[in-house]
Amino acid sequence: MSRGHLVVHGHFYQPSRLDPFSGSVPEDPTAAPAHDWTARVSDECYRPNAESGNLSRMSWNLGPTLAGWLERGDPVAYRGFVDGEHGGNGLAQPYHHTILPLASAADRRTEIAWGLRDFAWRFGRPATGVWLPEGAVDVPTLRVLVENGVRHTILAPWQAGDMHVETRRPYRVELGGDLDIVVALYDGGLSAAVSFEPRATTDADAFASEWIEPRLVSASLPDDEPPLVVIATDGELYGHHQPFRDRFLARLLGGGAADMTRSFDVVSLADALAEPPRHTFRTTRIVERTSWSCHHGVLRWSGECACAADGRWKGPLRSALERLAAGIDAVTDRVAAGWGTGVDPWAARDAYVDVVIGAEDPATFAERWLGGSAGPSVRESFLAILEAQRWRLAMFASDGWFWDDPARPETAGVLRAAARAARLVAGHADETGDLERRLVADLALFTSPGHGIDGAEIYRLALVEVGQPAWDPQTSMPTGYGERRGSVESMRLSTP
Fold it and tell me: Residue 113 above 70 pLDDT?
């Protein structure tokens, strides 16, 4: 029988903790002795895995916003990802970790385009695979991936349309219009054991012989096809969520004597899928609007589901931000009429990622899109509106909805992004501040289950914490913030 293939995939991602007003990450005392939680997770996970060489022997995706932080904040860890990519280990990720089945068609295209461009810029090759944020999937999203050159992705076994699907083989999902994509389904039992059963991962050799090998040798596949087992977990598991599991991972990934005693090879996902099985990929369908982290579809990020004790705030928060996004988009179309004939603001938004990642400076980008004859006020308007679009996209990062309560740092982060987007628009096209006024009114419609304050207050506190004047819905004017510092500190919660 052909030797089996094992792919160990790590989803490496952290919420962006960047203050959109200052461009820096505020210090978080709960992350001590580190400056903030991204720095602490890097100390405990990213750097040890880079130094041990794990990133050159496993499959992974690196969230673009995290990659940007690592490039400056932990160059050793960042270099581990760059050197470990080897032309096949890395998968791209849509830029802001947005739940794509809940996003507009234009936002899906931009998020995917930004993620693919970020990957190519950092790793020197186009991505052939993509990890979808929270594994959230539907056919329209997969079509956009394929239209952008993506050939494969990873999904959970319960996202396949066949109840008893064989996860040890890859499948082709037909998308219509002569489009299709290859899907690798991860092994639910093994992935759960690695993630949630610490005793299972104390001995890598025992895990290989007692857990993995039985999956690879039992019930052989037809035609002697090599069985494929994919283990998919959060990358932060290896050293942050479970201390010292970077060492377990290093032993599991093997090399030398450990490989000689095993009946399987550790390979990258790209290598495992490089050639179809001897005949053709079997086909399956997907269960749309599902995810890997919630068995209630994508409800965790849009409404009430059993994953949260009280999710009544999630729908109103999404509605508030969608209304703001619609307003920013309307202003964008209106202002873009003054940029010159033939300037497509949405194509420019797709390309603006080059400014965000530092591949092109803003002045050069503006000249390339507007031409040399555009005056200073037009260039200023162009760059301000696109920067507003940047933060308007960032405000849909999934972290803002993931937890049980909106009075958390993750939701504060998406609200700061919303404030930055609204104020950029106000400064260049909407001097009355109507967008922010409506946003605050909409946020007041939901309440924090644990703190008893409404969303407008959460918004004000999020701004106060980074030293920004908050909008007072009673007076329709910015208000001071010094007197609120104490309540902000009392709400500060640690990272998961």
Answer: yes
The answer to the question of residue 368 being in a domain is yes
Check whether residue 259 and residue 359 sit in a common domain.
no
Domain that holds residue 116: 4-284
Residue 158 sits in the same domain as residue 276: yes
- Over range 157-184, report the average pLDDT: 93
Domain match, 213 and 317 both: no
Does some domain include residue 496? no
Give the range among 32-46, 91-105, 162-176, 404-418 with minimum mean pLDDT.
162-176
Instruction: Clarify whether residues 81 and 161 are in a common domain.
Output: yes
Number of domains in the chain: 2
What CATH number corresponds to the domain at position 103?
A: 3.20.110.20
Higher pLDDT, 124 or 226: 124
Please give, one letter per residue, the 3-state secondary structure of the chain: CCCEEEEEEEEECCCCCCCCCCCCCCCCHHHCCCCCHHHHHHHHHHHHHHHCCHHHCCEEEECHHHHHHHHHHCHHHHHHHHHHCCCCCEEECCCCCECHHHCCHHHHHHHHHHHHHHHHHHHCCCCCEECCHHHCECHHHHHHHHHCCCCEEEECHHHECCCCCCCCCCEEEEEECCEEEEEEECCHHHHHHHHHCHHHHCCHHHHHHHHHHHHHHCCCCHHHCCCEEEEEEEHHHECCCECCHHHHHHHHHCCCHHHHCCCEEECCHHHHCCCCCCCCCEEECECCCECCCCCCCCHHHCCCCCCCCCCCCHHHHHHHHHHHHHHHHHHHHHHHCCCCCCCCHHHHHHHCHHHHHCCCCHHHHHHHHHCCCCCHHHHHHHHHHHHHHHHHHHCCECHHHHCCCCCCHHHHHHHHHHHHHHHHHHHHCCCCCHHHHHHHHHHCCCECCCCCCEHHHHHHHHHHHCCCCEEECCCCEEECCHHHHHHHHHHCCCCC
State the pTM of this model: 0.94
